[in-house]
Protein backbone atom coordinates (compact mmCIF):
# COMPACT_ATOMS: atom_id res chain seq x y z
CA UNK A 1 0.00 0.00 0.00
CA UNK A 2 1.00 3.61 -0.50
CA UNK A 3 2.68 5.15 2.52
CA UNK A 4 4.68 8.27 3.30
CA UNK A 5 6.78 8.61 6.45
CA UNK A 6 8.41 11.90 7.44
CA UNK A 7 11.42 12.23 9.69
CA UNK A 8 14.22 14.65 10.51
CA UNK A 9 12.43 17.31 12.51
CA UNK A 10 13.63 18.62 15.83
CA UNK A 11 14.50 21.65 17.94
CA UNK A 12 16.89 24.03 16.17
CA UNK A 13 18.16 27.52 16.93
CA UNK A 14 17.43 30.38 14.52
CA UNK A 15 19.89 30.31 11.64
CA UNK A 16 20.33 26.57 11.84
CA UNK A 17 19.53 23.93 9.25
CA UNK A 18 17.52 20.75 8.99
CA UNK A 19 17.01 18.10 6.35
CA UNK A 20 13.60 16.50 6.42
CA UNK A 21 13.01 13.11 4.83
CA UNK A 22 9.90 11.66 3.22
CA UNK A 23 10.25 7.92 2.68
CA UNK A 24 7.75 6.59 0.15
CA UNK A 25 6.57 3.02 -0.29
CA UNK A 26 4.04 1.35 -2.56
CA UNK A 27 4.79 3.58 -5.54
CA UNK A 28 7.72 5.14 -7.41
CA UNK A 29 7.79 8.79 -6.43
CA UNK A 30 9.50 9.94 -9.65
CA UNK A 31 6.22 9.75 -11.57
CA UNK A 32 3.94 11.59 -9.16
CA UNK A 33 3.81 14.99 -7.54
CA UNK A 34 5.39 15.16 -4.08
CA UNK A 35 4.68 18.18 -1.91
CA UNK A 36 5.71 19.53 1.47
CA UNK A 37 3.21 21.40 3.61
CA UNK A 38 3.53 22.85 7.09
CA UNK A 39 1.06 23.87 9.76
CA UNK A 40 1.79 26.15 12.69
CA UNK A 41 -0.45 26.23 15.78
CA UNK A 42 -3.60 28.23 15.10
CA UNK A 43 -2.82 28.66 11.41
CA UNK A 44 -3.98 27.02 8.22
CA UNK A 45 -1.85 24.46 6.42
CA UNK A 46 0.60 26.12 4.05
CA UNK A 47 2.23 24.57 1.00
CA UNK A 48 5.96 25.30 0.91
CA UNK A 49 7.38 23.21 -1.95
CA UNK A 50 6.58 20.50 -4.46
CA UNK A 51 8.35 18.48 -7.12
CA UNK A 52 7.48 16.51 -10.24
CA UNK A 53 10.70 14.56 -10.62
CA UNK A 54 10.14 12.96 -14.04
CA UNK A 55 9.41 16.42 -15.48
CA UNK A 56 12.38 18.06 -13.76
CA UNK A 57 10.00 20.55 -12.19
CA UNK A 58 10.15 22.07 -8.71
CA UNK A 59 8.18 24.86 -7.11
CA UNK A 60 8.65 26.94 -3.96
CA UNK A 61 6.37 29.36 -2.19
CA UNK A 62 7.65 32.92 -2.00
CA UNK A 63 8.08 32.69 1.76
CA UNK A 64 10.67 29.90 1.54
CA UNK A 65 12.33 30.48 -1.83
CA UNK A 66 16.10 30.66 -1.48
CA UNK A 67 16.17 28.84 1.88
CA UNK A 68 14.38 25.56 1.12
CA UNK A 69 15.45 22.94 -1.43
CA UNK A 70 13.37 19.93 -2.44
CA UNK A 71 15.19 16.97 -3.96
CA UNK A 72 15.09 13.26 -4.58
CA UNK A 73 17.65 11.05 -2.93
CA UNK A 74 20.25 9.49 -5.23
CA UNK A 75 19.09 6.05 -4.20
CA UNK A 76 15.98 4.59 -2.70
CA UNK A 77 12.52 6.12 -2.82
CA UNK A 78 12.91 9.16 -0.60
CA UNK A 79 12.26 12.88 -1.05
CA UNK A 80 14.15 15.45 1.01
CA UNK A 81 13.50 19.01 2.08
CA UNK A 82 16.68 20.89 2.98
CA UNK A 83 15.89 23.91 5.15
CA UNK A 84 18.58 26.53 5.71
CA UNK A 85 18.65 29.70 7.80
CA UNK A 86 15.72 28.58 9.91
CA UNK A 87 13.49 31.27 11.37
CA UNK A 88 11.02 31.08 14.27
CA UNK A 89 8.16 31.43 11.77
CA UNK A 90 9.27 28.13 10.22
CA UNK A 91 8.03 26.34 13.33
CA UNK A 92 5.28 23.84 12.67
CA UNK A 93 4.45 20.29 11.72
CA UNK A 94 5.81 19.43 8.28
CA UNK A 95 3.92 16.94 6.14
CA UNK A 96 4.73 15.35 2.81
CA UNK A 97 2.00 14.28 0.43
CA UNK A 98 1.55 12.75 -3.02
CA UNK A 99 -1.09 12.91 -5.72
CA UNK A 100 -0.71 9.18 -6.53
CA UNK A 101 -2.33 7.62 -8.63
CA UNK A 102 -2.81 10.65 -10.88
CA UNK A 103 -1.34 10.01 -14.35
CA UNK A 104 0.33 11.05 -16.56
CA UNK A 105 2.90 13.13 -14.67
CA UNK A 106 2.10 16.82 -14.44
CA UNK A 107 3.65 19.97 -13.05
CA UNK A 108 2.90 20.08 -9.36
CA UNK A 109 1.13 22.90 -7.57
CA UNK A 110 0.34 23.92 -4.00
CA UNK A 111 -2.97 25.72 -4.49
CA UNK A 112 -5.23 22.73 -3.77
CA UNK A 113 -4.81 20.33 -0.85
CA UNK A 114 -7.34 18.01 -2.49
CA UNK A 115 -4.86 17.22 -5.27
CA UNK A 116 -2.87 15.21 -2.74
CA UNK A 117 -4.45 11.90 -1.80
CA UNK A 118 -1.90 10.44 0.61
CA UNK A 119 -0.22 12.17 3.52
CA UNK A 120 2.43 11.27 6.03
CA UNK A 121 2.07 11.60 9.78
CA UNK A 122 4.16 14.76 9.98
CA UNK A 123 7.39 15.71 11.72
CA UNK A 124 7.70 18.58 14.20
CA UNK A 125 10.09 21.44 13.48
CA UNK A 126 10.66 23.91 16.32
CA UNK A 127 12.90 26.95 15.82
CA UNK A 128 13.73 28.64 19.10
CA UNK A 129 16.64 30.02 21.10
Question: Would you mind describing this structure in some detail?
Answer:
This protein is mainly beta and 129 residues long. It is 0% helix and 46% strand. It is built from no helices and 11 strands. Strands 2, 4, 5, 6, 9, 10 and 11 form a 7-stranded mixed β-sheet that branches. Strand 4 and strand 5 form a beta hairpin. The model has no long low-confidence stretch (mean pLDDT 96).
Q: What is the share of helical residues?
A: under 10%
Helix and strand succession?
A: EEEEEEEEEEE
User: Strand pairing plus helix content: what structural class?
Assistant: mainly beta
Number of helices: 0
Q: Shape, please?
A: globular
Largest sheet: 7 strands, mixed
Q: Cα distance, first to last residue?
A: 40 Å
Report the C-alpha radius of gyration, rounded. Answer: 14 Å
Question: What percent of residues are in strands?
Answer: over 45%
What ranges have pLDDT less than 50 throughout 5 or more consecutive residues? none
Strand runs, count: 11
Amino acid sequence: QVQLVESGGGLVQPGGSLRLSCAASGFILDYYAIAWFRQAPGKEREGVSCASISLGFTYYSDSVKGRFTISRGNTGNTMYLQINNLKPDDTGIYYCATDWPRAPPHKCALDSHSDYNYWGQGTQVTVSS
